[in-house]
Each structure stands twice: as structure tokens, then as C-alpha cells.
């Protein structure tokens, strides 16, 4: 239900931007918040469908949810520290995507033990998606001058860029470590499936 709701919020936000003449889909999905919320919403919907139909949730989907949860933790942190303000989105959309949705996803991971404990050797999997996103965004910043967040602007200098990117990656690893650690707990509603590979 939460996954479906956030997909509706994203669709409404994009429709409003199109109506205001800012309807470039590539730019819309260039925001880490939007792209991560979209992918997390899809992951939650798929997980919910599998659970409702009594089918086993594959291990890769559990890891993907863990990565998404860690990324949303960073979204909430960065949006309230580095990139404050609604930007081009309505304030209610900003509140949903930067506060409400990350809190619900983290709460779901904390409360419902519907996954096996994640092996620490897979913690590195929190990095490829954000690193790929950063690569695309920084390339766009150097070529067409568009970046979604001011702290990634090339004109701020290499030192600032390296500092922010390093901080983001450390934050992701820290958030991932928290998510991985919680995966071994039973939560308030223990419905642990058989371990998956």
C-alpha cells in the first residue's frame, strides 16, 4: 500500500511539473530522491504481491530492499541538512518524499522481520546504484550544466565536490550498516521466511 501510494505521489508531482512547463522526465528522475522513491515503491509493491500470494521472496529482492532502505535514510538526512527547501516540488510532495516515505520504509524494516539476516560480505552492494547515479549526474554537470543539487555544481570546485561525494558514500555505508544490523533482529512481527541464497 505504501509502495503504491508513493508511486501515485511521484506521478502527481511529475504531472504538476509538466503542467508548469518543467516536464523533462530525465531531469525529474535525475533527482536521487525521485529515482530512489520510484524504485523503492516498485520493490515494495512486488514484495507485497509475493507476500499476499504466499510466494517466497527471493534473496535478491531482500537485498534490493535493504539497499533502498539505506538510500532513503541518506535521502532524509541530506534533504534536511544539505539540500533544504522544496525546490521545484510542492511542499507536500517534499514532505512525503523526504520525511514520510523514508520514515515508513525504515519503520517497516525495523518492525516487520520478513527477511533473513543479511550477510555482511554483501554490504558493498549499497554502493553501485548511488555511484552510478553520481557518475551520470556529474557527467551531465560537466556537459550540459544540469545537476539536481547545488552541492554537486562543478563551479563549486573539485575540493567541495570530493568532500561531498566522499561524505555521501560514507553516509551510505553507515546507513547500510544500520540496515544490515537490523536485518538480524526479529522485529515486532516476526515472520521470518526460510533463509535464501
Report, as a whole number of angstroms, the end-to-end distance: 27 Å
Number of strands: 2
Helix content: 55-70%
Order of helices and strands: HHHHHEHHE
Q: Quick one: biggest sheet?
A: 2 strands, parallel
Beta-strand percentage range = under 5%
From the spread of the alpha carbons, the general shape counts as: globular
The number of helical elements comes to 7
Structural class: mainly alpha
Q: Give the low-pLDDT segments.
A: 192-197
> Widest sheet: strand order?
1-2
Mean pLDDT: 86
- Based on CA atoms alone, the radius of gyration comes out at 17 Å
Question: What is this structure's SSE topology?
Answer:
Blueprint: H1 2-19, H2 25-30, H3 32-52, H4 59-81, H5 91-111, E1 112-113, H6 128-143, H7 158-183, E2 189-190
Parallel strand pairs: 1-2
Helix pairs in contact: 1-3, 1-5, 3-4, 4-5, 4-7
Amino acid at each position: 500500500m505504501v509502495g503504491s501510494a508513493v508511486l501515485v505521489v511521484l506521478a502527481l508531482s511529475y504531472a504538476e511539473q509538466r503542467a508548469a512547463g518543467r516536464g523533462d522526465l530525465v531531469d525529474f528522475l535525475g533527482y536521487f530522491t525521485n529515482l530512489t522513491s520510484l524504485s523503492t515503491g516498485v520493490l515494495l509493491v512486488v514484495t507485497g504481491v509475493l507476500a499476499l500470494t504466499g510466494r517466497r521472496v527471493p534473496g535478491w529482492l531482500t537485498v534490493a530492499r535493504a539497499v533502498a532502505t539505506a538510500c532513503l535514510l541518506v535521502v532524509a538526512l541530506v534533504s534536511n541538512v544539505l539540500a533544504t527547501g522544496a525546490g521545484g516540488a510542492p511542499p507536500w510532495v517534499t514532505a512525503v518524499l523526504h520525511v514520510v516515505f523514508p520514515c515508513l520504509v525504515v519503520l517497516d524494516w525495523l518492525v516487520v522481520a520478513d527477511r533473513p539476516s543479511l550477510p555482511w560480505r554483501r554490504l558493498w552492494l549499497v554502493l553501485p546504484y548511488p555511484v552510478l547515479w553520481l557518475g551520470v549526474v556529474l557527467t551531465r554537470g560537466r556537459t550540459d550544466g544540469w545537476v539536481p543539487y547545488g552541492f554537486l555544481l562543478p563551479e563549486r570546485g573539485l575540493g567541495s565536490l570530493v568532500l561531498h561525494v566522499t561524505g555521501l558514500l560514507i553516509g551510505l555505508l553507515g546507513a547500510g550498516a544500520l540496515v544490515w544490523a537490523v536485518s538480524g533482529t526479529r522485529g515486532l512481527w516476526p515472520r521470518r521466511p526460510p533463509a535464501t541464497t
